[in-house]
Amino acid sequence: MRTGRPRDEKVRLAILTAAQELVLEKGYAAVTTADVAERAGAGKQTIYRWWPGKGALVLDAFSEWVSQAPRMSRRKPSLSSTLVEFCRGASEAAPVLRALMAEAQFDEDLHRRLIAQLVRPRGDELRACLADRRPADRELVVNVLSGLVWQRLMLNEPLDARFVRFALRVVQRI
Amino acid sequence: MRTGRPRDEKVRLAILTAAQELVLEKGYAAVTTADVAERAGAGKQTIYRWWPGKGALVLDAFSEWVSQAPRMSRRKPSLSSTLVEFCRGASEAAPVLRALMAEAQFDEDLHRRLIAQLVRPRGDELRACLADRRPADRELVVNVLSGLVWQRLMLNEPLDARFVRFALRVVQRI
DNA sequence: GCCTTTACGAGACTTCGGGTCTCGGAAACA
DNA sequence: TGTTTCCGAGACCCGAAGTCTCGTAAAGGC
């Protein structure tokens, strides 16, 4: 049994909320951990006690945000609707995603977390839409699609309806 | 006519060489402009006089390196040989490419430079290998290939022979 | 041969954000 | 009551980016 004062859930949420708000307001690079602590009414040390750094904190803040999104669990969503939803979310959060992927290039631990919490889950969603394909083809399509999306993000090109049509056309040809 | 002492070409090259060596030795993140200046026998100010920052400097250092690569100008290289060469170079310089693309996410000017000096030229090389395809297909293939490569880079997965076969299989299906 | 202009090396300096340390106090459990 | 862990607050350290200044050097113009 763990002894001592337990972690305060209110504080945890306040920090995640503050991080999310500040990043949306000012952009990832302009937000400091001190800013987050101040808005959350928390101490800086409380942040560093539970997160290894700014990257992991922001990742957590937006992981929760993504998982709060209305995941209408119809039994098998179509590839196109999934891709549309996928791109809508990625487009809204584009600046954050770009920053996190960028920061992850300099931080191995954050890189692992990012893949586990954001990259892999999205790939799995896509994979689930391709149950009717041959397994080898499935991986191929998933790779191509996520490759296209991440490239668009890093190159700062729009993930709009035109792109979705483009991507679907590619997949159809494979 | 420009008056005053002209820019010293020796110094320019010494700085680029020092930057290149140091980045290869210690990795992008561990190199500071002060390090580069010291090894080049130059002053820090001389770096900032000609480059806006570390990113642009390293980009220039490796742009020259790439363009020095033996570009055997046979008339029309095949797609597969180009892709192999492409991946070999990208694989060797992978840590630098990752770091530059990452830094570019926080620096709009560097982002433009990176695309103009590295991303676009490589895309053009690929495009030149696809002269026999319909124009619409060409863009599609170029996008898919460069998307796959950049994704592999940012996800830190190997750009090996197996990947090349994979990529070629994808293209063949389109 | 001077004068102006710009480049150069060197080093001091400022700024700022990440991250650590410390302290007084609070919440749990034994 | 004592031990343990958490909390807010704030001081603190560190390192890298970028600026400023100074004495000097190399060009062209006069």
TrEMBL record, chains A, B:
Keywords: DNA-binding, Transcription, Transcription regulation. Pfam families: TetR_C_11 (PF16859), TetR_N (PF00440). SUPFAM superfamilies: Homeodomain-like (SSF46689), Tetracyclin repressor-like, C-terminal domain (SSF48498). GO terms for molecular function: DNA-binding transcription factor activity; transcription cis-regulatory region binding. Residues 32-51 bind DNA. Residues 9-69 form the HTH tetR-type domain. This is TetR family transcriptional regulator. It comes from Myxococcus xanthus.
